[in-house]
């Protein structure tokens, strides 16, 4: 239908994409071969067949195994280049990209190498057609507070060099049992260094984790946040404060947050006035980039053309860009 066609063709910002989650099986195998790494999967098809997830943790196990092929700046460059190509094809003109440094430093990859490779691709895209982007460093919440402090300490000396790009911190990985409160101090330190803050909350975790992200980590956006719908007072607070949710419909379906897209809470949250955005999360693993997420949600929830336009406008309003940049994009 023409309406779905319009969705695909309209400019949008993507605010929730883990760059390691854009690593397609073909590139995982190519990088493994380059580095002489033996993967626990016999073939590209066998790897893809393992993408049958029952919850967040079952995905993270495969996701961290895939990221294990990233060793040199060049690998990060290739991965980022491939993502930008897919994003551009979906008319994404601005992207705020998460990366998970702790999963790489654990394997001896220096923070500087990751940033060098990712930045080379982002700067190249910016020069080529103005593709706009920012980077957000995510702490892995299943690791210790001390480990998060180490990751921040490794990034701080590079903030000057990447001031135009590395503008925030986030919180991802296994949510249940790792509440935002565990990272209150490291987030305070990051904010003192001038960084913005976001956190995954209310994906599998309860509404209380969303309150903690707001009140303790003082985040500017909530990643996922789909369980906010369980708490009417929280829904009103999100709507009144215009704190955006970066929702990822295909991710939620693949990780069994909802067993049917028609049960997704984004429509009722949108109706309540919450600033909903639509994003791809880990597109190589969840079966689609940003347009596929818009279309899946619009289809299952019978979103109107006006609602989809609102969601795309929200993506620019919630982006960490200047008013001038925003005016040039919307
Ligand atoms: N949730 C938590 N951690 C993640 C995700 C997610 O959706 N994707 C990559 N790391
Ligand atoms: Zn995510």
From TrEMBL:
The protein's UniProt keywords, in alphabetical order, are: Hydrolase, Metal-binding, Nucleotide metabolism, Zinc
Q: Which residues bind Zn(2+)?
A: 16, 18, 200, 281
- Enzyme Commission number(s) of this protein: 3.5.4.2
Q: Provide the reaction this enzyme catalyses.
A: adenine + H2O + H(+) = hypoxanthine + NH4(+)
The reply on keyword Hydrolase is yes
Record-given protein name:
Adenine deaminase
Q: Which residues bind substrate?
A: 282
Q: Which residues form the Adenosine deaminase domain?
A: 11-330
| Organism the protein comes from | Robbsia betulipollinis
């Amino acid at each position: 239908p023409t309406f779905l066609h319009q969705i695909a063709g309209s400019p949008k910002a993507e605010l929730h994409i883990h760059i390691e989650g854009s690593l397609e099986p073909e590139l995982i195998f190519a990088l493994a071969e380059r580095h002489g790494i033996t993967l626990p999967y016999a073939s590209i098809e066998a790897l893809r067949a393992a993408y049958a997830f029952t919850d967040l943790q079952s995905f993270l196990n495969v996701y961290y195994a895939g990221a294990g092929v990233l060793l040199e700046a060049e690998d990060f460059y290739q991965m980022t280049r491939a993502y930008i190509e897919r994003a551009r094809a979906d008319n994404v003109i601005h992207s705020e990209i998460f990366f998970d440094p702790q999963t790489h430093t654990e394997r001896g990859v220096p923070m500087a190498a990751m940033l060098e490779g990712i930045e080379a691709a982002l700067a190249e895209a910016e020069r080529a057609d103005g593709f706009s982007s920012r980077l957000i460093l995510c702490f892995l919440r299943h690791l210790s507070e001390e480990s998060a402090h180490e990751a921040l300490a490794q990034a701080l000396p590079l903030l000057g060099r990447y001031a135009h790009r590395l503008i925030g911190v986030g919180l991802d990985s296994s949510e249940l049992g790792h509440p935002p409160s565990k990272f209150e101090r490291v987030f305070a330190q990051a904010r003192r260094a001038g960084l913005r803050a976001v956190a995954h909350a209310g994906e599998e975790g309860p509404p209380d984790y969303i309150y903690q992200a707001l009140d303790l980590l003082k985040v500017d956006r909530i990643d996922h946040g789909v369980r906010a719908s369980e708490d009417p007072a929280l829904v009103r607070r999100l709507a009144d404060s215009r704190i955006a949710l970066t929702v990822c419909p295909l991710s939620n379906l693949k990780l069994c947050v909802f067993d049917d897209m028609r049960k997704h809470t984004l429509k009722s949250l949108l109706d309540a006035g919450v600033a909903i955005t639509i994003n791809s999360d880990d597109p190589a693993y969840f079966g689609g980039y940003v347009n596929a997420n818009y279309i899946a949600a619009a289809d299952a929830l019978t979103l109107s053309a006006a609602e989809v336009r609102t969601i795309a406008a929200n993506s620019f309003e919630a982006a960490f860009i200047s008013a001038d940049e925003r005016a040039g994009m919307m």
